[in-house]
Amino acid sequence: MVANVPDASRRQAFDQWYRDVRLPDAIRSFGARKAWPLWSLSDPAVHQAMYQFDDAAALERAVDGDEMKRLIADFNRDWPDVTRTRESFTVAEALAV
Can you give the residue ranges of every domain in the chain? Predict the structure, then answer.
């Protein structure tokens, strides 16, 4: 999920809400293994959240289920002016040095 929080004065509150409310709820609801909230270094208004799932089937269950609808409604209620997009990725390969 990528959110745009253009009002700099609201970013700290958004960050706290995401860390304390949204992330724990989403991890529990999605059944995700891990999650990472990120702020862009090149555009400070851009917030991204990444979730790790066991496999593509687990991801599909998470994004296609009723919990996703509830999470979207909760986000819209709490941050109605924050726009966001959603993308799904799979690891092509992992390299270690």
Answer: 2-85
DSSP state of 44: T
Work out whether strand 2-4 and strand 83-85 pair parallel, antiparallel, or are unpaired: antiparallel
Give the separation between CA 71 and CA 66, rounded to whole angstroms: 9
What SS3 class is residue 76? Answer: helix
3-state secondary structure 45-73: CEEEEEEECCCHHHHHHHHHCHHHHHHHH
Q: What is the pTM of this model?
A: 0.87
CATH node for 2-85: 3.30.70.100
pLDDT in tens, 37-46: 999 999 999 9
Question: Structure tokens of 96?
Answer: 């270690």
Checking phi first, is residue 55 left (phi over 0); if not, alpha (psi -120 to 50) or beta?
A: beta
Q: What share of the chain is helix, strand, coil (3-state, %, to 5)?
A: 45, 20, 35
